[in-house]
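Why do we care about 3D structure at all? Because function follows from shape, and shape follows, mostly, from sequence. That is the central idea of this module. The next example makes it concrete: a single protein chain, its amino acid sequence, and then its structure expressed as tokens.
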Amino acid sequence: MSGDAPAAMPADPPADPPAGELRGPARSSRRLPPPWLLMYHSVAAPERDPYRITVSPQRLHRQLGWLRGRGLRGVAVAELLRARAAGQGAGLVGLTFDDGYRDFVEEAVPLLRRHDCTATVFVLAGRLGGDNAWDPEGPRRPLLTADGLRAAAAAGMEIGSHGLLHRELPSLNDTALREETLRSRELLGEVLGVPVDGFCYPYGTVDARSVAAVQAAGYGYACAIDPGPLTGRHALPRVHVGERDTAGRLWLKRLLHPVRRRGLPAVPTAGASGTDRSTGAVR
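And the structure:
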């Protein structure tokens, strides 16, 4: 990380509130700091990158090293949410990789394991083994196959759904919306042999109808980018990370995240309103 870090940096804000703040019934106006979720896409040499979605392996290695050097560890989103629900999320950062590029297994997984991290990769159930045809100006990049998904899971990574074909959910009719949410979850469950828990909104676009469809499909959580008033377990805010994000920029993004993103509704204890505090799921 030589040359990346500023000369002096104040201490990072706490990653999560003290455990006691997660206990007790929620008030309507009370919200918890949002979890710090980092959004990656492809890990490769960014030769031509009009959408700025590519991070080189060297940069990812430095970014993970920066996290570990500050006492932070990157984990899959499901693991982070479980830890937060138990009041043990301090020091954990959620790592997500959208689209399910083949380079996730080839480049990202070895680096994640080297730094003792895990991550969630959100994949397109209807494009396994295909490419990123939805990006008209970007270079064609191969996507993970079914075998690639199983290899990622075997390496300790979480697999989530990014929909079926990478379509913006708010623009879809009811049938297509069910395909992107419910059908994609069913297909990934068939490939992996276990149900997937997480969903990621294509392009980060989300509305109340999309959130309701994701919940109805059985997902335990969903990731967006900046969902505003919809922020909650099924519309989690994230921050984009790119090739230009050196240590100083990461530090600023961490500092500003709870300011720029809404907090999450406080989760009441089990019995307070039918919510299981261990998972945050409503029974």
